[in-house]
Amino acid sequence: MRALALLALMGLALAIAPGEVLPDFQLLDPKGNLITPKTMPKPAVIVFWASWCPVCRAEFPSLHEVAEKTKVPFFVISREPRDTKEVVLAYMKAYPRFVPLLASSADTPARVAERFRILGQPWTLVVDKEGKVVALFAGRAGKEALLDALLLAGAEVE
């Protein structure tokens, strides 16, 4: 158990940190629109996940509730190279408020996860209006902590 906690702390130390600007990426939304850190609406939430991840499956309903309540865009990026466009889009049918980001001719979700220094899933980032990371959750993000982070990011939260 201690080894797992130590690995999680080491991963957090390596990952993109609060205060850092989002690394550049070029992914497509389901309609084929190019999404980059400059073009994405903010504040926003970015969730790195994988279709086989049991923690992701358990967490997505509460994340979707927060997305519905706040109307903040939630961009979801599968860091699993085997999650094809078809797998991702089928999975996301249950979560219509999420915007899945897919491979483009210039980038892949797995390479984006590497640029963000994401080591596992789910990892959730809250981004403010300037494109800086306000909070990072490795593992399951609690609803109240996520709402607090969104307030810090400038989102209107009831």
Automatic annotation (TrEMBL):
Keywords: Isomerase, Signal. GO terms for molecular function: antioxidant activity; isomerase activity; oxidoreductase activity. It holds the Pfam family AhpC-TSA. Residues 16-155 form the Thioredoxin domain. Gene3D superfamilies: Glutaredoxin. The keyword Acyltransferase does not apply. InterPro entries: AhpC/TSA, Thioredoxin-like_sf, Thioredoxin_domain, Thioredoxin_ResA/DsbE_sf. Residues 1-15 form the signal peptide. It comes from the Bacteria. This is Thiol-disulfide isomerase.
